[in-house]
Amino acid sequence: MNPIRVGLLGLGTAGGGTYDILLRNREEIARRAGREIHVVAAAVRNLDKARARVGDAIRLGTDPQAVVDATDVEIVVELMGGIEPARSLILSAIRQGKHVVTANKALLALHGNEIFAEAQKQGVMVAFEAAVAGGIPIIKALREGLTANRIQWIAGIINGTSNFILTRMREAGASFAEALAEAQALGYAEADPTFDIEGIDAAHKLTIMAAIAFGMPMHFEQAYTEGISQLTADDIRYAEEFGYRIKLLGICRRTSEGVELRVHPTLIPQQQLIANVNGVMNAVLVRGDAVGSTLYYGAGAGAEPTGSSVVADLVDVTRMHTADPDHRVPHLAFQANRVTEVRVLPISAVRTSYYLRLRAVDRPGVLADVTRILAEQGISIEAMLQREPPQGEQQVDVVILTHRTVESALTAALERIEALDSIAGPVVRIRMEALAS
Prior knowledge:
Layout: E1 4-9, H1 13-24, H2 26-33, E2 37-43, H3 47-54, E3 59-61, H4 64-69, E4 75-78, H5 86-95, E5 99-102, H6 105-122, E6 126-127, H7 138-145, E7 151-157, H8 160-172, H9 176-185, H10 194-197, H11 200-214, E8 224-225, H12 233-241, E9 244-254, E10 259-269, E11 281-288, E12 292-299, H13 303-319, E13 351-361, H14 366-376, E14 381-386, E15 395-402, E16 405-406, H15 407-418, E17 428-432
Parallel strand pairs: 1-2, 1-4, 2-3, 4-5, 5-6, 8-10, 10-17
Antiparallel strand pairs: 7-9, 7-11, 9-10, 11-12, 13-15, 13-16, 13-17, 14-15
Helix pairs in contact: 1-13, 2-13, 5-6, 6-11, 8-9, 14-15
């Protein structure tokens, strides 16, 4: 059988890793796919650099549209990143009847509904395993492995940069700024790390997983996003004293009122396996009604972990290349005509537990005022910690863990607490999740 022919848009970190794997494991991949997979063309920014890597084995050029339009390219692999021209190139490939593989989580989170609708219309596949959690096959698990389950919730450490920073803050007692500088020096964080540290990258990935888990369209614009830039070493330390770790989690949960879709720092019990995922590693915890909880762990970025997922998609597309479109796995796991709108809950409607840190004047009656306000909002206290003030100081840290409550009630309570003349500055609020059944 003739090889299937691939065009790469990008030959950088992910593209280079994909090319290397296809070359190194060529025979093994062909045995699995049923035919060989050949890269015949690539669009690159730097021709000299690319030529030094691949020689004359493939056609190289700087025009990605030329690769999309090439008559000998059957699958287009988009590894450029960004929104444009990636979106236009992918839609062009689809309209030419070509299958697409992409690792572009931001593009899918923002324009996936349009891209999947066009692919459905044209009868082609769009595969995107590498868009979420690098080398971890979480998309395949959600779309196929867990298809018997009604997914109840997903909680994931899905940004390695933020996880590295939080790990260093805990292990070394570093400040956020110090841990970020270390991450940048090691190449884990970009010069502009906003997408990573403010939770935007994680929200892109969570949007994709939620759509597959719950059979809903992409709704990135409705995801609640909060990053880690305001966390302090004090909060990391206090969480440890209570038996918790702080992780930046992406959480989606099915409730009777709608779907929660949120990214934020979260206290999770130290005994949870996911609490012990450190450094730049990723992990995704999925709860299904039949299987219970399953954990997926591995490298969330890097040339070959990402390339591993891209090649897995290429094998899947090669196997199903000539299949009837109605017999392929749907893009979002559910049949296209069964993907339905679901209400995404605002953060004010979410129910969870909370870690609160107050800076209070050390005098009688202060805690009584705080606990009274919480009680009047129906918020009960699980645990409390108060430190003696350093010598000569009149203010002390008070840390409170609450039982589950609706966020709007806590917000109302905190507004009243912060108005007390005995409370200095805003109250630190961090959500807590037990991640139990």
